[in-house]
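Problem 12. The chain below contains 261 residues. Write out its predicted structure in token notation.
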Amino acid sequence: MTYETILVERDGPITTLTLNRPKQLNALNQMVIRELNTAFDELGSDESVRVIVLTGAGERAFAAGADIGELAQLQSPAAARQLAIRSHHLARAMGDLRQPIIAAINGFALGGGLELALACDIRLASDSALVGLPEVTLGLLPGWGGTQRLARLAGPGIAKLLMMTGERVTAAEALRLGIVEQIVPQAELLHTARQLAGRLAGLPPLSIAAIKQAVNRGLNMALDDANMYEAGLFAELFATEDAQEGTRAFVEKRKPEWRGR
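Solution.
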């Protein structure tokens, strides 16, 4: 498909999605949300796509937040709720996707931009990145999953501190708090993200998908229930051709050939 606000670049099993509104610092408007939903739906049904990298055009911003001009034009609380729900649906779709999504955070990731990154599976940040949820300065709160995902990553106390003050933190501080997993020099960010994507793409896709779902869904379960869910996934994988290939390759001391079956 042809998109107006995002770019889709395929390279073998790796697809890079780029938020493409650099003049607006890749601010997230309703068209961006719609096009991301469509793109993820398309990629999710394509078995040749193993890993997705999500980034922003230019060096200044991954996404500087929601499009404030568009927010200001909302006519009612009901309209605001619908906007938030559409964004929640996008994040849920990202979580349900079988492929891992790597966020390459180049520059600002604020408000909805950070919430979009939080919905990804792994976050790499440039050494010049700044992240935060400053919605309190608009008289709002993070409405696209930020209150829940940040608390799960950084803990409730840190999440409340950052959201109640609206403070922006550096990449180094974000790493310390567990908001991002790795810091990379700006010039190497996308290359490093694609290298990681290549590593993941070379591993059995059914195992990768099951690990993602075990973690994502297990976080919303009691521990005993999550462990039983994990056991079920383990049993399902045990019956796959890839599991048989993996054990044979280990015994035969050779590199396995994954087929995704």
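Discussion. The chain has a mean pLDDT of 94. Students who got a different answer should revisit the alignment rule from Section 12.3.
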